[in-house]
What does this fold into?
Amino acid sequence: EVQLVESGGGLVQPGGSLRLSCEASGFTLSSYWMHWVRQAPGKGLVWVSRINHDGSTWYADSVKGRFTISRDNAKNTVYLQMNSLEAEDTAVYFCARGHSTSSQNWFDPWGQGTLVTVSS
Amino acid sequence: DIQMTQSPSSVSASVGDRVTITCRASQGVSTWLAWYQQKPGKAPKFLIQGASGLQSGVPSRFSGSGSGTDFTLTISSLHPEDSATYYCQQANSLPLTFGGGTKVDIK
It folds into this structure.
């Protein structure tokens, strides 16, 4: 069964850092692009970042320079390092896999999400 | 950035009704358009890719159409379990963007 499990969320003060993890199982992580998508409380979905199978990365403007996506294929895990956190970063963070090797910008499947709360 | 605009933002319909949700892109995305269903407290579920390609296991009462800038998601006969928020998403160019969502309630 293809599965993604996020961890690492929690309460952090403004200006602080947090590292999210997304552990993958049931598929070969190295073959897929991986994404992070977030959802602020009561709001819609917002794409945050993508890492290709070759390690190249892309970011939404709102997080560029503060967030870093990375992957460890040997550990079947994708990470999101979040620095200089702001209240506006408060959200549930979902990791998602590119749907297939030929259509990697659709999100399927998704993890269950991990809540990040930035507050003093 | 490509802006995705969904309408309506919410709809209330009865079981058995036909429900149509529209999604408009601020510039052409060809058929690089997906639809997702999200229920409260859950992760989104991938329904449709390429504007009209129904994913395996998704009931056939769901269908998608459109290309370029205008797209629709149709539920031909609403079931109680279809109560959810639906999002469109363009995959034509980065940043990948979603519509604001359409909440479907059962009367």
Notes: The two ends of chain B are 36 Å apart (CA to CA). Chain B has a mean pLDDT of 98. Chain B has no helices and eleven strands.
